[in-house]
Amino acid sequence: MLEAHGIRVALGRREILHSVDLRAAPGALSCIVGPNGSGKTTLLRALTGDARHDGTVSINGRDTARLRAWELAALRGVLPQAATLAFPFTVTEVVRIGLRAGDAGEHAEIAAAALGRVGLAGYAERSYQELSGGEQQRVQLARVLAQVWEPVTEDGPRWLFLDEPVSSLDIGHQIEVMQVARDFADAGGGVIAVMHDLNLSAMFGDRMLCLSEGRIIAEGAPGEVMTDATLSRAYRCRVRVNAVPGEAASFILPHMAQAD
Amino acid sequence: MAVASDLGRGMRHGDRLARARALHAVFAALLAAVSLTSLGIGATGLTLGDVLGALSGAHALEEIERVVLYDIRLPRLLTGIAVGAALAVSGALLQGLFRNPLADPGIIGVSAGAGLGAITVIVLGGSVALIPSGAYAVPVAAFLGAWGVTFGLYRVSTRGGRTSVATMLLAGIAVAALAAALAGVFIFMADDQQLRDLTFWNLGSLAGASWVKLAASGPAIALAIVAACTLGPALNALALGEATAAHVGFEVERVKTLAILSVALGTGAAVAVSGGIGFVGIVVPHLLRLATGPDHRALLVNSALCGAALLVAADTAARVIVAPAELPIGILTAILGAPVFLWILLRRRGLVDL
């Protein structure tokens, strides 16, 4: 279980997050949605300990502020929104940075398997810096997957924190990457993803949290959060939520939205 | 099946660590060969054959030859090895820390800070209260100067986990200018003997090597290199940024502190014995990265070996080119290194996003 209580984050004098409480269960894919500037990424950065914050975060019952970096690394992987690389590493060498111990043969297999998982099996020896933005994003995901390769260990479930994992991907790779997150959750791990795309969140997510102006204004199953009232309030434009008969996932179409 | 064999080949080629590690032995052999050559070349008539004979016990040396070999050439050789290794490893460490291949102890002002510390002790040591003098005071002061500059530059040029290359280079220029100005004040105050010592700093040379100076600087350099070589995995992770390095399990603040201390110790001790020898720290790691990839686990060790070999070779050349006089070695390394620096800059202009 991941639990956060009273998360407040201030940048300078402005408070970005106002005492956010959050619970997420392992075995589920939880999507944090909300408009630009609502504090989605800041919330994720607070959960991963990157942003200075008030309040507490615990993973599997352990207060993350009291864990050492290597203990946390064994517990969760973090995919940042964008990562630059200073030196000309190959794709394999980047993925292996996720494998801390380094040299053993089984690790090499995990690196190759992780690359295959994100659809980059033939890219092992390519130079990372020569890849497209979307390919780099998937290499980073492979690195994170390699770090927490087994979704559940004897120490309990492991966690993936994904900051807009599909933001620079085409539709085919968006679905591929969301399926990776889905499979990680189905295997017993926990996934927290910051998402721009409401439809993908509704399709793949088990839970949805909608942030607006630093507060969670709705949370629950995607169908409960994806309502005309909630989304129109959060995104400040009139939207119409639709549902395919017989299918669970709700969706919205930009065609049906009107600016306020 | 084709895919499987493709994968297997990719893994071998995609990971260059094994090949880089295999080169440790090659570079060690290179260093040994260069070192022997260096012992056999000099202003007196002591040849490589004599040296090999003496080392194997087959050939007895005359008194004067013993002095040349054991009290002049040997300490000079060992100093060259220590200084070259220290400068190259410091360069590789700084580049990993600043996440940029243009960082170098000479270019960003770390050597200038070390030089200022050393000059302060040379001129004021023993005559001004609280400033000591002596063989150990110079390296300690150089270490403090190098530490102050490295720490200050990192603080100035890093905001929110991102290090600005432009800030680093420009702040380095300002620091070097300030250090040069302060050094000018001390040169103005210095007496004749001190002036001779100070001139030696500016040019950079191994000619002043002695067992006493080596005893003061050698252990510090050895400690710095050993500490540096433990940082390889952490520097690899740091290449992805401070946040990611923490996410994969490194105590980033501790790593940064250790890297800065190690750079200060290595550069400080190197500058204390040899003055301002530039560009070794940029040329060696850069060429090694081209040859074997940027994995710091192998890069740091290879940098130490190749830096030592390069400096010993340059020192030997400096003694031969205008024999029986000798060129200051700093001139040779600058002639070699400055074009490499320009080459890196022009090939990857995006590095300096001014």
UniProtKB/TrEMBL annotation, chain A:
Keyword ATP-binding found: yes
Keyword Thylakoid: no
Transmembrane segments: none
Known function: Part of the ABC transporter complex HmuTUV involved in hemin import. Responsible for energy coupling to the transport system.
Pfam family, one: ABC_tran
SUPFAM superfamilies: P-loop containing nucleoside triphosphate hydrolases (SSF52540)
SMART domains the record matches: AAA (SM00382)
Protein name: Iron complex transport system ATP-binding protein
Domain ABC transporter, first and last residues per copy: 2-238
Span of the signal peptide: none
Keywords carried by this UniProt record: ATP-binding, Nucleotide-binding, Translocase, Transport
A GO molecular-function descriptor: ATP hydrolysis activity
Organism for this UniProt entry: Roseivivax sediminis
UniProtKB/TrEMBL annotation, chain B:
Repeat recorded as keyword: no
Membrane-topology descriptor: Multi-pass membrane protein
Keyword entries, A-Z: Cell membrane, Membrane, Transmembrane, Transmembrane helix, Transport
InterPro entries: ABC_BtuC-like (IPR037294), ABC_transptr_permease_BtuC (IPR000522)
GO biological process: siderophore-iron import into cell
Principal location listed in the UniProt entry: membrane
Compartments, as annotated in UniProt: Cell membrane
Full protein name: Iron complex transport system permease protein
Organism: Roseivivax sediminis
